[in-house]
Amino acid sequence: MKKFESISQELISLVEEWDPKFLKLSEETYCKRKNTQNRSIKQILGHMVDSVSNNTHRVIHLQYQSSPLIFPDYANFGNNDRWIAIQNYQEENWHQLVKLWRFTNLHFAHVIENIMEEKLRNTWATAKGDKVTLEETVVDFPRHFKLHLGEIGDLMK
Questions:
Q1: Span 14-45, pLDDT tens digits
Q2: Domain segments of the chain: what residues?
Q3: Residue-wise over 120-141: b if at least 16 C-beta within 10 A, else e?
Q4: What CATH code is assigned to 5-156?
């Protein structure tokens, strides 16, 4: 069994579970309902696309670049809100956004199954100065993923 196969399978299962739920939502639900950060479901889903995209890049860079890796800040100091605004997820075609979310996450599941185990201790430096290993990055991803699915689930009620 590959080291991150269980995480990969968990992500795949969640994508398979949620994709049809997203596609059944009404425009009223995915556009108008807002979480405590004033994000619509479309914006949360877009944020999840940004998150998986950034994590895919981290995982790849951490396997061939010098450690610690200095990676552009995405998640801190309001940058993730800037990404959401600049890409204007609120106006994105819903079905295309759902498919983008689906396939970027399925690709990430594939990427993490193929990580070189000898690179797991490589680190990247966060904007706050913390050092995070490749292994910690992968292990923490499902927590963040499920946090946002929980937010979306609350907004769907």
A1: 999 999 999 999 999 999 999 999 999 999 99
A2: 5-156
A3: bebbbebeeeeebbbbebbeeb
A4: 1.20.120.450
